[in-house]
Amino acid sequence: MSVFFIFLLVFAQHHPSSIQNELLERPLPLRMGIGTAHDTVSTSSPQAQAFYDQGLACLHSYVWIEAARSFNQALKLDPKLALAHVGLSYAYTELNAPAAARSALDRAVALYEHDEHDHQHIAVRKAQMAAEDDPRNTDRLASYRKALDDALARFPMDEELWLQRGVAESSDPSDRGQGSTAASARYYERALALGPTHFAAHHFLAHVFENSGRIDEASRHASAYAAMAPSIPHARHMNGHELRRLGRIDQAVAEFEAADRLETEYLKNEKIPVEHEWHYQHNLDLLGTSYQYLGQMAKAERLLKASFEIPSALAVQEFNKREWPVFLLARGRTQEALEAAKVMIGHSSSLIRATGHIQAGHAMLASRRFREAAEEANAALRELKSAADGAALVAPSFEALQGEFFLRTGQREKGRMMLDEVIRKLRSAPGPDQWAQALFALEAIARAAREAGDWDYAARVAKQMLEHDPAYAGSHYAVALAAEHAGESRAAREEFALAEKGWNKADPELAELRQVRSRQKQE
What we know:
Blueprint: H1 16-24, H2 46-60, H3 64-77, H4 82-94, H5 98-111, H6 116-133, H7 138-154, H8 159-167, H9 185-194, H10 200-211, H11 215-228, H12 233-245, H13 249-270, H14 278-294, H15 297-308, H16 315-319, H17 323-330, H18 334-345, H19 350-366, H20 370-386, H21 391-408, H22 412-428, H23 432-451, H24 455-468, H25 473-485, H26 489-502, H27 511-522
C-alpha cells in the first residue's frame, strides 16, 4: 500500500453521532473564495443546490467537516436530495465514521426516484465503497472503474464524473486525488475543458505532475488552484509544496503561513478542536520543517512541538510526529529526543510504537549506547511484525536505523549498503512531503557518517543531498565539511560561502552558521 493512502489507517473511530451533533450538522453560510464546483442535481431548491455544490467544492479540497455541514444543510432545505447523502458518504468516510458513511449511502439508495443522473452517481459510489471494503481485490477496482465508464457513456458532459474517473486511475480505490498517476491526467484535462472555472482539475493535475517529478507543470496548476480557491488552506498549502520544490523557499513559507492563518481563524471562529482538522496539523509540519530549512530553528521548534502535541486518529499524521525527535537529535538535544521517542513508544498503535523505538534507537546511537540501540531496534522489529497494516510506511526508517548501527559499530560496508538502499527508496518516493523528509533523512545519515568517522561515505551522502536539493544551505554545509576533511580547502571555502548565503535569514545564533563564519575568519 502506498504511503499516500495511509490516511485510511486509523487508530480510533470518532463516535459518528457525537461528531454529527457537535460539528457536522451545524448550520453554515455559503462561503466565498473556496472555488467553484457544480453538478446539477434533482432538487427544486436553488439554495439546496448551492449548498450541495459547496459540499462538492469542500470534498475536492479535502475540507471534510465543511463538506459534511454543507451536505447536511442541503438536506435541511431538501430532505429528498439523494446525492447529498452520497456526498455525506464521502465526508463520513474521511472523518473515520464508516458506519455513518454506509448509512448515508443507504439513505441515498432509498431516496432514489428514477433520475438517471442520480442513479449513475449512486451506482458509482456503491462500486467504489465495495472496492474500498477490499482494497486489494483488483476485480472490485475494475468494477468501480467500469461503473464510472458506464456513467460517462450516459453523461459525457458531467465534469464531476470525469474528475472521479481520473482519481480512480489510482491503484487504491480510497484515493481522493493525492495518488493521481500520469494516466489520470487525460481525465482531469477533459474535466477542465468542460468546466474551465472548476478548480478541482487544477488541484488534481498538480498532484499528477508532482508525483511524476514534473514540478514546473505541477506549480502551474497549483498556482491556478490557489488563485481560484484563495480561502482554502489546502490550496495555499499545495502552492507552497511546489514553490519549495522549485527552490523558492521564501514564497513557499509565505503560502504555508497563509494556510496557517486561514486554518487558525477558521478553527477559532467555528470552535472546532484542532485534532478534528487533519490539515491544520499537516500544514504545521511543513511550515515547521520549512523554517528548519531556512535555519530559523526557534520558529521551527515552536511549530514542530505544537504539532507533536496534537492527537490524531490518522496513522500518517502520528507517524510524522517523528519529525520532532528528528529535529531535536539534529540540534544535538539527544535526551530530549529520547523523551519524545518514549511518548511515541507509549502509543496505542504498534506502528507508532515501532516508530518511537526507531527514534529512541537513533538517540542511543548518537550517545554511543550501542547495546541499548540494538534493544530498541529489536523492539521496533517486534512491533512491526505485529502491525496489521502500514509497515511499509515505517520500513525505510527501520532500515536506516540498522544501517547507522552497522556504520557506527565498525561494520562499514554492511552499513553503507543498507543506507544506500534507504537513500534510493527515500529519493524515489513521489510527493512533496516525502521529498522534504528525504532531505532531512539524508542530512541525518551524513551527520551519522561523520560522527562514525566514515568521511568517505559522508562525502558521498553530502553529494546526494546536493543533487536532491542544491538550494538547501545544509547541502552545501555537508559538502563543505567533507571537502575540508579531505584537505580540499578551495572547494570547502566555496561551499561554506554558499551555505552562508543560503542561511541569510537564519537565526543569528544558528550553530552551523556560526561555525561557517568562524572558519571564514580563519582564512
